[in-house]
User: What shape does this take?
Amino acid sequence: MKLRGADVLARTLAAAGARHVFTLSGNHVMPVFDAALDARLNLIHVRHEAAAVHMADAWGRLTGEPGIALVTGGPGHANALGALYTALAAQSPMLLISGHAPLNELGKGAFQEMAQAELAKPLTVASWTAKSADALGRDIARALREARKGPVHLSVPNDVLDAMADPTIAQVEKPEVRTRKAPAALAKAKRPLVIAGPAAMRQPPKAKFPVIGMESPRGLNDPSLGKLAEVIARADVVLLLGKRIDFTLGFGKIFPKTCRVLRAYGDVELPEPTASQKAWFDEVRSAIAYRPAEWKEIQNSLHPVVVCREVQKLLTARGAVLVADGGEFGQWAQACLRAPRRVINGIAGSIGSALPFAAAAKLAFPDAPVVALLGDGTLGFHLSEIDTAVRCGLPYVAVVGNDACWNAEYQIQLRAYGASRAHGLDLLPTRYGAVASALGAHGEDVLEPKDLQPALARAVASGKPALVNVMIERVAAPRY
Ligand SMILES: Cc1ncc(C[n+]2csc(CCOP(=O)(O)OP(=O)(O)O)c2C)c(N)n1
Ligand SMILES: [Mg+2]
Assistant: This one.
């Protein structure tokens, strides 16, 4: 018995372990919606295609299993593309499947015809168009294998989805993990450092070496890395683990001239640290942990430090997930908050992903608290995803630092052009808590410091997706 291409696609995904598909419907992919029923794939239907990609991205980063996004052809695909940039920079395991005009109409002005695979190419580690129903299962299996390195795109023409196909379901074999020994220079170094790219950071080698993750476009000025710059300036050997020398490392200029910079990819076995290396690692850890002592004195205000102090109490539970995104407030969140799991917008420096990230995190870890912090400008990108969270029952807590401003850019104006030339970056002091309530979530608007803690407590207790909009002080991101 033959199966439709769409059934082969859905069953190959399911056989590889996929359970959820983040999607926005459209003519081209309706055969896959139909096939998802028998393949027992759960559809999470979003409000914008970029949100589906962000969710697949967060799912991939948090679970290690490729997140699956499914969108329609042409404009649906185009809407999804921007979000791939964030996933690419984060080396996220994920697959974007886009519907596509039928092969037999290409070049004739087909409905929503577009050079989709070409458009997605620079945003992915692999991107192509399926050519036949019989090969579709193998296409999906290959896509899932390639997706271990980063986002992959596959366009699936409508006629390929509808054609009858060989029913053999391609298996996606688990990769063989080969562990290599770290370069010998590392064991002999006096002041070694291991700096990891995003993927290596998520699976750091088990070792007593501190592995420093670089996942901020601010590089050494990433406020979650404290005074790391001071210890890097003294390192004698640096091992870059799955990390290229790019702008985040000042194109190599951040390392002292005498420092040896080595590179490794994949699973690396780090040496047992010597006694003197252990003492050095203590210095490294305390440099990273550095935060200005004055912060403790900030009280009785809605300064971001005060907001984070209250939010930290929600993140102590086992497996708690911190999501941080967007602007100066996002930088405060990264500086102040610690959690067992963290997903941030990352090296791409693209704002807007927080609510989709939080929804995917809650789906991945239903029993763990998920708290997202984001600016008010950032919130606007995917505000309607609150509806998705309500509909799908994904009770995260989003804390919006509302300074009625695109403050990160406003701060650039202040620094570069002066206060008299700061313009164009105001937002309104909108009561986003009320907006969230209207969308069926739990909403809070916090205007006074005394209301913050009770509002957060009610948000958690509501058991619903919750948004706590805090009218914060407009301050620049932390610098040490
Ligand atoms: C997709 C995208 N568009 C624009 C920017 C530029 N940008 C970075 S931060 C920022 C302001 C964010 O404002 P908000 O979310 O309110 O945070 P705030 O800085 O006010 O705390 C902007 C516009 C970006 N990084 N990514
Ligand atoms: Mg703002």
